[in-house]
Amino acid sequence: MWGRLFKNTVLAVLLLASALPPVWAAEEQSVSLTTQDGWTLAALYLPAQDGQKTVVLLHDLGKNKEEFSTFKANLSQEGIGYLALDLRGYGQSTGNGEAASFAKEGVDNEFNKMTRDVDAALSFLKSKGVPAEDTVVLGAGLGANVAAKSMSFSPDVAAVALISPTANNRDVLSIPAMRLYKGDILIAAGAADKKGFLEASVIRNVAFLSAGEGKVTFLTAYDLTSHEMLDKYLRPAVIQWLKTPHKPEVLPDEPPAPEPLPVETQSLFVAPSSTEESLVPSVLE
Fold first, then answer.
1. Are 60 and 142 in contact (CB under 8 A)?
2. 3-state SS class at 113
3. What are phi and psi of 35, to 5 degrees?
4. Between vectors from CA 132 to CA 128 and to CA 136, what angle results, nearest 5°?
5. Which residues pair with 55 in a beta bridge?
6. Which residue from 59, 129, 148, 214 has the highest number of Cβ atoms inside 10 Å of its Cβ?
7. pLDDT tens by residue, 195-205
8. Model-level pTM greater than 0.70?
9. What is the pLDDT of residues 32-86, one digit of tens each?
10. What are phi and psi of 146, to 5 degrees?
C-alpha cells in the first residue's frame, strides 16, 4: 500500500513539474565594454530568453552596478536579459579618473559623456544579436537622466524607464530628449521628495505630448527614491511594464454613428440640419 502511494506521489510530482514553465538557465557573464572616447566599462550581462527584452541598467550618482542585484534576480526569474554597467568613473570601470573628480557643471562634462557609455552598451547588445526594438534602457537618479538624454542619440530603442529622474542632474538634462522620443516610457518618483516629484511630473507631461496616448506610465511611492524605491516598492510593477509597456487601445462599446455629409452654403461647408435633410434630400444623395 505504502509503496503504491509513494509511486503515485512521485508520478504526481513529475506530472506537475512537466506542466511548469521551464526555468531560464542562462548564466550571468562579466564583460568589458569600450567607449568611443577610451573608457573601459565593467558590466554584467545575462542573455534574454527567446521573445524577451534586454534591459540596460544605469546606476545612480555614487553607486555602481551592484545596486541592481535584487532587481537583476527578478529579471532573471522572468527570462528578461540585462546589461548592468559601472558607468565611467564608478565601480570597476577605468579611464580618465574617478567620478569624484568630474566637473559638476558644463554641457560637455564627463556626466554628459555617459551617453557614450549607453552607446557602448547598445553596440555590445547589437553584436549579441539584440536589436534596438528588443532593448530597454533603465536608469535610477543620475542614471535616469543619462537614460533620458541617450534617447536623443538612440531613438529606436523600444522603451526607457526613468526611476527618480530630475530636470537637471550634474547638468545632464532630461527634458529635451523627452520632447522628441516616441517609444514607451516609464517614470517613477517618490512623493515625499516634493521637488523631485514635481520635476518628474513635468517630465511625464512632456513625454505624454511627444509619445502620445497609452505610451507613458507613471509610478509613485511615498518615502523612498532611486534604487531604494525600486527595490522596496516598484519591482513587480516595473517587471509587468517590461512585459506590456503600453496600454491597449480602448475600443468603444459600439461604433459611432456616421457623420452627416456637409452642405455647401455660401462657399462654406456646414453639417446639414434635420430640416435641411427633409427639404433638400437630393442635395444629400
1. yes
2. coil
3. -85, 165
4. 100
5. 82, 136
6. 148
7. 999 999 999 99
8. yes
9. 999 999 999 999 999 999 999 999 999 999 999 999 999 999 999 999 999 999 9
10. -65, -40
User: What's the CA angle centered on 232, arms 183 and 147, to 5 degrees?
Assistant: 30
For residues 156, 157, 163 and 168, what is the CA-based torsion angle, rounded to 10 degrees?
Answer: -40
CA distances from 241 to 145, 160, 174 (A): 20, 11, 21
pLDDT at 284 over 70: no
CB 171 within 8 A of CB 107: yes
Task: Report domain 24-243's class.
Answer: alpha beta
Classify residue 156 by its DSSP letter: T
Rounded distance between C-alpha atoms, residue 139 and residue 249, angstroms: 28
59 Cβ contact partners less than 8 Å away, ≥ 6 residues apart: 65, 67, 68, 84, 85, 86, 87, 90, 139, 140, 141, 142, 143, 227
- What grid cell was written down for 222? 511615498
In 96-193, where does DSSP find H-type helix? 114-127, 142-150, 175-178
C-alpha cell at 190: 517618490
CA distance 54 to 172: 24
Cα distances (Å, whole numbers) of residue 98 to 4, 39, 86, 226: 67, 11, 12, 22
Question: Are 79 and 63 contacting, i.e. CB atoms less than 8 angstroms apart?
Answer: no
User: What's the grid cell of residue 183?
Assistant: 517609444
The CA radius of gyration of the chain, in Å to the nearest whole number, is: 26
Please identify which residue in the block is written with the cell numbers 453639417.
271
Residue 87: exposed, middle, or buried by beta-carbon count in 10 A (0-12, 13-18, 19+)? buried
Residues 110 and 99: beta-carbon distance below 8 Å: yes
CA distance 263 to 260: 9
- Residue 220, classed as helix, strand or coil, is strand
